[in-house]
Amino acid sequence: MARVERSFRGISERLTVRYLERLGGELIEEGVVEGAEWSACFSSETVGIGPSLTLTEVTIVFEGEDSTLEDLVPAFAKKAMRAGG
Known about the structure:
By secondary structure, the chain is an alpha+beta fold. It has a 5-stranded antiparallel β-sheet with strand order 1-5-4-3-2, with helices on one face. The protein starts with a strand and ends with a helix. The longest helix has 18 residues. The chain is built from 2 helices and 5 strands; from the N terminus they run E-H-E-E-E-E-H.
């Protein structure tokens, strides 16, 4: 079982769930989405960017087989990258 931790700025927990559901997951409980061969636990916090700007940063821990995460993590990152812009 592999584990990959990634942080994404500028997306909300609501969007995190939506993107993970579109990748085949289902919200099991607050902060946990499970797919057929993977799971993702996430939390968020507000982080400062410079002296006056703040953003939401979501940290996700993906767990699953290496081959599954090789596709899942980049697919999620691609969706998350579009969220902020």
